[in-house]
Design goal:
alpha+beta; oxidoreductase (chains A, B, C, D); FAD (chains A, B, C, D); flavoprotein (chains A, B, C, D); homotetramer; globular; Butyryl-CoA Dehydrogenase, subunit A, domain 2; Acyl-CoA_dehydrogenase (chains A, B, C, D); acyl-CoA dehydrogenase activity (chains A, B, C, D); Butyryl-CoA Dehydrogenase, subunit A, domain 3; 411 residues; 3-stranded mixed β-sheet
């Protein structure tokens, strides 16, 4: 039993921390202000890039802090899921940091899909510019008309028509759809409705300028459009793409999704842990510097206990996530289903509580844009729904727990 | 012991419910959409009125549903705090409804201050247009530089200079400051710094166009500017107002505040209870209409238990608030301190939980602007800080509880 | 709306409080010590009465503090459910107090059954000595072999055989079965298995010395036999009783149970609220008198907040229970199902939390028999299972909430 | 990063699990019944050994499953704190199992004290028979008259008088004091009241038959005397022991205590985790075998979610504890203060919740002695107070967290 990270992980983390401290944190507040002015309101057609972010991307790439998430030693940095975990945590401290290192969702997941399941042509056309950070991508899975917590509810369709595939359906919560550089979507739909339940779907690459792709609107998430990424609602009306845009094969949608989601949840969770650490730091600093009733806030009432609770929740959540990452690396996603579902429940709920505590310690400043706390709380709230709500993951953990007590095969 | 509302209260409630059902709820979504487009972003100088809201105000006034909060039979509707409580609950169901009935904070509190403590001239100049709904007002108490949970931290000053008062200081979270009709502020500051702790402050009326009043910016609250009301940060630099703008007297700031806050907390809490009832209704309706894994959501996992928990929390919170209102009416604010502080803690926390549950039942729709749920959650979060954070009110309840066991006078 | 208790209730409460203060509380600790020595261990055949308790019963009866629970003006004190509620609360402050006033479960519920549904002969034979406090009774419903949360699981049988009824089955958690004065049981079993689900059962009076009644053992409840009452497991093997022992009629078991449970839950809950008030008082007193790190415990960390939380939980639970009592009195049990189930969930959970907090404030003394706190916590734990577990009552509340949104009749 | 246990640990665990499965679990219920009859009531002078336990001790010793807790390769099994952790977990599944392997508190802690700080003579006289399991020992620290959460409140005294030490004071919660084999106490008291705060105390070995040692009574813990161990209250009246009974030196009491407590908390916590795993297993098994409303309980309402929550809480608590053990092994107790205090808060609270859930799933059986669940819940409740209450440990975690943000040395 050894809780130390590998030397490669530690070395990369040291460099990443230095970059965050020297280049990102000092401009955090300024860049958020610029964005708030530049990209106000829900009219995504007017959203624009933040030049300062683009410059930081170039710097990060030059510093070798690029595509850290990808285990491939050539295309990424050769870091395992466990190795990358503390780096993802570090990037989670600042809302816009992951993009600077080309490590932001949903692009990371989409790149993983292409890396593992894409054809050579698909890699050349889409993976390459994504790895370069030249374009952005979206993932079109959730639908407004059905409870998407049950993925088999999906209504969108993919039909073969000669050498083409014809897509129809309506999707929402396609994060990143409003980004000026968003160029391609991975679209999931019913391709083989007669097949067994988990072999009915396919994933197809769709250029966002294809005929029949209609961006309907951007959705606010807890009151914020999250520009210039955005959460889009988009309809696909007889969208025709060549068959080579199909990823892997018809009926493979769920198989691809499963491979995509394991590491992705580690990334999400570790970033959330980084946000929670940041929130706790801010809470302690505010609690030390503000005085009420003659004492710094940390000395008043239950404030110190709440700080302790935050520390204990964060440390538990981190260990749970690292253990899940280690299981993915050592025994594979399929043998780590309890662990992966468990962190999906535990970590966002933890962040929601820690951010809420930190907000309370800040008073009005906590809910304002003067701190990242309200954004952290909003992100936590979203994460409790994204990639399956708490309830679905609790159910998975329960099912596997109960199965231990059933005769083989009755799970 | 009788849990029935008075006939006057029941009659007014019936009319109010009819108005809400027929005139407000059908246009809720449309008006919110209009507002989102019309008043996007934080540049308050471009915010504008929603004509449809103005029209509804006229209708409500004609229907006798106007100034319901004011116990005065002539200026208001002669309803006691207890009588008004269920009406406040009803208006809490729709975010913008209170203004339609001229019952929105902070105007209600400001009107109460003028009604109880204002001079005839002040009533004529400010109370009258406020009661008419022609202007809006703000309350300038909280300051950015100090922990305002301890009101004695206040740094703003009010100095006598001949027949003038000279005001200096910086305030924030002045809700309504961005509203096109906002014309006057009640400014609280140190007037008698040498006096005993609760006799050091005064409240002064300040026209918002007075020289030296500088609106610095609007703050987001949980990501939203809450336009066209807004939460403003405003500086007062040697603002000079005539002495007749002083409310009551120098040193009376805390005495006024105490009188203002009792009924105000009932109003806030009852509105929050209305929001919680609405959230619960939406949760049940969504839970019945959406199907996952072959069943409506209300039949899945712990969803029904969460609905039950919401019902039990809401009913307890309502009874606690009604009891507090009844104590204000029968024994006065000073003898209802435990009750008033208790609801200030219990109700916003309850709403935060119920809204969170309802969001979760809705999936992505819950955090979007397609439902009022994210706004309810954000409002609950704000209420846990506004008018004293949870911690201050818990401390008050504890202090009074402990005092029961101390020799007289050692509380 | 009026939160004052009726004059009759207030007068009785004043006398009861005086009796508790002067006669019961001063000997509480001594009587518990006597009982612990006299009635140690699980051999119920050696359990004996506490003479001091018997003497207090006589005193209470002479003081007119007897059968307070019974609304009948002649047999009881003519107090409504709402009137009796604060009296039940008062008796809940001391574990053995309810028996002193002949107001202890399950005798109160059994007396109510006989009062409402018993024949004249049954009243003469059993209700009279119960009202006199000369005998004790038990209620045999729960069974060890099935999940009794679903009452339709019941396996015990009642068969007609000429002028006799023949009973078979095994029951447990028959509280009071070990008491030296326990003379009669109300036995519930399947009498009409072919009838509709809620018309299959009957209730029958069984003298405990009838042939075939076998007391198998006493069960510990959270480590305690609760002597000299006890929680018994008892088998009925071809127990033959005359048909006149049948209460009301065959198939009426559920109808009787429903009538029995409404007021009974008010009683249980109000006693639990009394226990919670006592626990809070003890917590504050301990917190004021013990010093650590230079301060009384109430000034340390979150202790004051926890005291406030207890006050707020208790007050909410009491209002919810009083409202339920008022609904029983004004619209009847059948129209107060949400309220009755809600208090059954809320109040025991509240007591469990408040007692836990008070234990923590006491340190080791809190879990010891030097305070009633561990007993309160154990009682709360039992109450979360007795008369239907939390889950069943949450389900009832949810079902009725959801039904509001269903077309008539689909609940 | 490697979450696998060492080969030595895994091998020992496999043998221990086999012993538990084959020799302990099959007789668990029978031995608890024997004990309940044999050792009923609080008269400790009549408590006696359970011969079956003594026989199992012999077997365990012969199987090499003896003194597993002691890192010494000769006297124990050479297992590090981390290595021993999963073994402690396994023994925690059955209440009386730790003693079978000579791994029960407080003997383990006392043996560690003698092992690290005892003189050769002390080791010969007391450590040897303790390691043989021939005698039992107690630890006398907590006092009834003061808040022992603040150890500096201690009032007991140790005075030098020639070659003797004279002890005075009253202690309680001396666990094991009622055991027939209890022969010696480690007594902690003020020896150097003028010294700095953490150098004022000493620890002294006191034979329980020394003149002036008076066992006053056994205390119930949550209603149970925990015979034949017991929790004793004991007075020391001018108890005179030779100076060679002093452990280490005068003024070293706190230094010894600190060394004693680190591994001890790992042991306590891992046993609690074992109890929680057992409780969860029982809950699932009950939930699968009992049927209500036509379904097994695990399919009803929120039961499956609660099972999932238990799994997630247990896994997090275990990882936190293993990490703390690893830090003790790698960087020492002094550098693992956050971790050691964190598990002391997290784990007992987790067990309390999991046991409570499992009780609820069992209905009445859950609170009875038919399952170990009520005992687990009671043990968890005790653990939240023993060795420092939650509040003290939360305070420690908070203090160290806050110190990270203070200038060096201001912690």
């Amino acid at each position: 039993m050894d809780f130390n990270h590998s030397p490669a992980s530690q070395a990369a983390l040291a460099r990443l921390k230095a970059f965050m401290t020297e280049r990102v944190l000092p401009v955090e507040s300024q860049l958020l202000d610029i964005n708030r002015t530049l990209n106000a309101g829900g009219d995504w057609t007017r959203w624009s890039l933040i030049p300062e972010i683009e410059a930081l991307k170039t710097e990060a790439r030059e510093a070798g802090l690029w595509n850290l998430f990808l285990p491939d030693a050539e295309l990424g940095q050769g870091l395992s899921c466990t190795d990358y975990a503390p780096l993802a945590e570090e990037t989670g401290r600042v809302l816009f940091a992951p993009e600077i290192f080309n490590c932001n969702a949903p692009d990371t997941g989409n790149m993983e899909v292409l890396y593992h399941f894409g054809s050579e042509q698909q890699k050349e056309q889409w993976l390459k510019p994504l790895l370069n950070g030249d374009i952005r991508s979206v993932f079109c899975m959730t639908e407004p008309e059905v409870a998407s917590s049950d993925a088999t509810n999906m209504q969108a369709t993919i039909k073969e028509d000669g050498e083409s595939l014809v897509l129809n359906g309506r999707k929402w919560w396609s994060t990143g759809l409003g980004h000026p550089n968003a160029k391609v979507a991975i679209f999931m739909g019913l391709s083989n409705p007669e097949a067994p339940k988990h072999a009915q779907h396919a994933m197809v690459l769709v250029p966002l300028d294809a005929t029949g792709v209609e961006i309907e609107r951007m959705l606010t998430a807890n009151g914020d459009y999250d520009a210039p990424y955005g959460h889009g609602e988009v309809s696909f009306n007889n969208v025709r793409v060549p068959r080579e845009n199909l990823i892997w094969d018809l009926g493979k949608g769920f198989a691809i999704a499963q491979g995509r989601l394991g590491p992705g949840r580690i990334h999400h969770c570790m970033r959330a842990i980084g946000a929670a650490e940041r929130a706790l730091e801010l809470a302690v600093q505010r609690g030390l510097s503000r005085v009420a009733f003659g004492k710094p806030l940390v000395k008043l009432g239950g404030n110190a206990e709440r700080i302790a609770d935050a520390r204990m929740m964060i440390d538990q959540a981190r260990l749970l996530t690292l253990n899940a990452a280690w299981k993915i690396d050592t025994v594979g996603v399929k043998n780590a289903m309890t662990e992966i579902s468990a962190i999906k429940v535990v970590v966002p709920n933890m962040l929601q509580q820690v951010a809420d505590m930190a907000i309370q310690m800040h008073g009005g400043a906590g809910v304002s844009h003067d701190t990242p706390l309200a954004s952290f709380a909003a992100a936590a709230r979203m994460l409790r729904l994204a990639d399956g709500p708490d309830e679905v993951h609790r159910h998975m953990v329960a099912r596997l727990e109960i199965a231990k007590h059933l005769p083989e095969g009755r799970a």
